Amino acid sequence: MSKKNIESVNYGLEKIFEGAQDFLPLLGTDYVELYVGNAKQAAHFYKTAFGFQSLAYKGLETGSRDTVSYVLKQDKIRLVLTSPLTSKQEDINNHIVKHGDGVKVVALWVEDARSAWEETTKRGAKSFLEPTVEKDESGEIVKAGIYTYGETVHMFIERKNFNGTFLPGYVKWESDYSPEPVGLKFIDHMVGNVGWNEMDVWVKWYEDVMGFVNFLSFDDKQIHTEYSALMSKVMSNGNGRIKFPINEPAEGMKKSQIEEYLDFYEGPGVQHIAVATDDIIKTVSDLRSRGIEFLSTPPEEYYKAVPGRLEEHSHELREDIERLKSLGIMVDADEEGYLLQIFTKPIQDRPTLFFEIIQRMGARGFGAGNFKALFESIEREQELRGTLN
Ligand code: TYF
Ligand code: FE
């Protein structure tokens, strides 16, 4: 990637964050909920392969007759896996029939869920759930939800009067089976794929409805391979804790990976969840040994070019390039530092949701210098799936 692109990464960041509005103060990501066909087996996968720990449960044993949910935790990350227990749960069943397993809810932790719902719906958000109080012996929470792209939802969670395990209605999930964590710390960003020419519609939606700012953009001239292209804009809230890049497909010689996603998810949705680690070599070694599959390793020339790509940060690199190469980890830098990242293959049969593992060593960008190698690797997978044409 050109020097020019890397420079655009940090231009006026502070000033841009100040431009964000505070009608929607966000404390962080609260949880991510996936609707899945078989939550029990999915939970086993996230424990065994990704090192998540059992946290909370609701299901038949707790009086939940219609749905079952397993809550998993690793450091600050909470995942909720939900399945319907009967065919009568139409919303969840229909979601799974249409999209396959995927992210339904990106929940945001707020001080005041009523205000979050009012401020966003009055700015044009479509309501998913009006402010609702839920209680149990551990206190009460307020939750409210709005739709974002596709059928995806942002739930606002106010938990200042609650000290239970997760949310009212859940019990602590005691399990004798607890594989070691792999060092995943928190969600760095979550990316949405939207339809043709819809990126700017959703950029404006995040600006107007959520008070976010666009702090980085990549156009199809920057993000392309010989065959395909996409465009991406990164939206951030005011304190920079929540970052949502939004991708749209762009015209290329062959089918864009974004188009492949839209075909198989049958609409817009969450494309990847990027999770941070502070020891990517250990995290990726562990994940590989537990059967997680990553995109193919970039070619030899990619690693030869690493010192050049790092420029002035090249002396800061603590990791051995040979070790990074053997694990397939990619390296990029911007003015403030470098970052290490790697991408899993899709984690379900449809080529939709995948994970990114990222370690930031000062850099605040998204690895623009890796885009070409990354997208070529994705195209090799598309080729195998017969979805490149
Ligand atoms: O979040 C990002 O922008 C990076 C790069 O389809 C990326 O992780 C961008 C688009 C994409 C896959 C990865
Ligand atoms: Fe990413």
TrEMBL record:
Binds 1 Fe cation per subunit. InterPro entries: 4OHPhenylPyrv_dOase, 4OHPhenylPyrv_dOase_C, 4OHPhenylPyrv_dOase_N, Glyas_Bleomycin-R_OHBP_Dase, Glyas_Fos-R_dOase_dom, VOC_core. One of its GO terms (biological process) is L-tyrosine catabolic process. This is 4-hydroxyphenylpyruvate dioxygenase. Fe cation binds at H189, H272, E356. CDD domains: HPPD_C_like, HPPD_N_like. Its cofactor is Fe cation. Residues 28-159, 186-345 form the VOC domain. Belongs to the 4HPPD family. Pfam families: Glyoxalase, Glyoxalase_4. Keywords: Dioxygenase, Iron, Metal-binding, Oxidoreductase, Pyruvate, Repeat. PANTHER family: 4-HYDROXYPHENYLPYRUVATE DIOXYGENASE. GO terms for molecular function: 4-hydroxyphenylpyruvate dioxygenase activity; metal ion binding.
